[in-house]
Design brief:
heterodimer, A: 2 helices, 3 strands, elongated, B: alpha/beta, Rossmann fold, nine-stranded mixed beta sheet
Chain lengths: ~80, ~230
């Protein structure tokens, strides 16, 4: 089973990298960009097909390693 | 005094901090590989050195914080043992939950490698007894992710409990509240744990210990540790 974990900065946390990208897009003349926040994507392949245990494993992975919950939040999406 | 320096893949300041411990505190540390399960018997000070453990992959210090040896470091800290994390070591301590908050990308997005002025916030801990409160000391920094942040209630608690160890200051002693070298909140350069036995700091005191090289303002930190552990 394939899943995608998306880790983003909490909205209250400043994101200087996102700001720099936002500025670069503006200077490239890309129209209509209001703001940019940078995050991370993890594509994870899981053994087996049990959705509930996959969700539990990914939650564990996020809490233990993939996200620093002091500043980040995460969400899990399944391919199917 | 029986110090141990933890070595992670990508640590690169272990020799410098070992040299400082030897020259200033008179103790040659054992170097402990991250995959070990235990600290050498009788270890009374654990040092997490600077560097780029695991190439800063994922987040600075994130993977090192989950290394085998960190359980032993955590147990040592819980027993009241002294732990010093410098630069990447500070990032690892935060990621490991031994210190609150997190170090994020410098506000101006640049790697900062220069001397800074620090104000010593208190001189009654095992790490700072050889300084005086409000001393202004010169210590170098070298980091890209030293911007300390935490949620509002954590910052409030740190301030209330006097757990800020050092702040970035100007030469006249004024504090760079958010416009220091990296944008840290309240100019925070280093913090203590609740029991003041764990210190994490971004600047490198081990760089400034010999007059041949420059200022020696880092010596007092190692002298403090030697004093604290001799008395113990």
């Amino acid at each position: 089973m394939k899943a995608r974990v998306i880790v983003t900065l909490k909205s209250a946390v400043l994101d200087p990298q996102g700001k720099a990208i936002e500025g670069a897009l503006r200077s490239l003349g890309v129209a209509g960009v209001e703001s940019v926040r940078q995050g991370k994507v993890f594509d994870v392949e899981l053994i087996g097909n049990d959705r509930a245990s996959a969700e539990a494993a990914l939650k564990d992975a996020c809490e233990k390693l993939l996200a620093n919950t002091v500043i980040e939040t995460y969400k899990v999406e399944f391919a199917d | 005094m029986k110090p141990a320096v933890i070595l992670f893949p990508g640590s690169n300041r272990e020799h410098d901090v070992a040299r400082a411990l030897k020259l200033v505190a008179g103790a040659t540390p054992s170097v402990v590989w991250h995959a070990e399960q235990e600290l050498p018997k009788g270890t009374d000070l654990v040092v997490l050195p600077g560097g780029f453990s695991y190439g800063d992959y994922l987040r600075c210090g994130a993977i090192a914080a989950r290394a085998n040896i960190m359980d032993a470091v955590r147990a040592h800290a819980q027993r009241g043992g002294l732990v010093l994390g410098i630069c990447n070591g500070f990032q690892i301590l935060c990621e490991a939950g031994l210190l609150p908050g997190v170090l994020v990308r410098n506000a101006r997005l640049r790697f900062v490698c220069r001397e800074v002025v620090l104000r010593v916030e208190r001189a009654d801990t095992a790490f700072t007894k050889a300084y005086r409160k409000n001393d202004l000391i010169r210590i170098p920094v070298a980091h890209g992710e030293g911007n300390y942040t935490a949620d509002e209630s954590t910052i409030k608690q740190l301030e209330k409990e006097g757990r800020v160890a050092f702040r970035y200051a100007r030469h006249d002693g004024r504090i760079d509240e958010t416009d220091g070298p990296n944008g840290s909140i309240n100019g925070i350069a280093g913090i203590y744990s609740e029991k003041f036995n764990v210190l994490g700091m971004m600047p490198h005191p081990e760089n400034y210990i010999e007059p041949e090289i420059g200022p020696t303002d880092g010596r007092a930190l190692f002298e403090s540790l030697a004093g604290a552990l001799k008395a113990a």
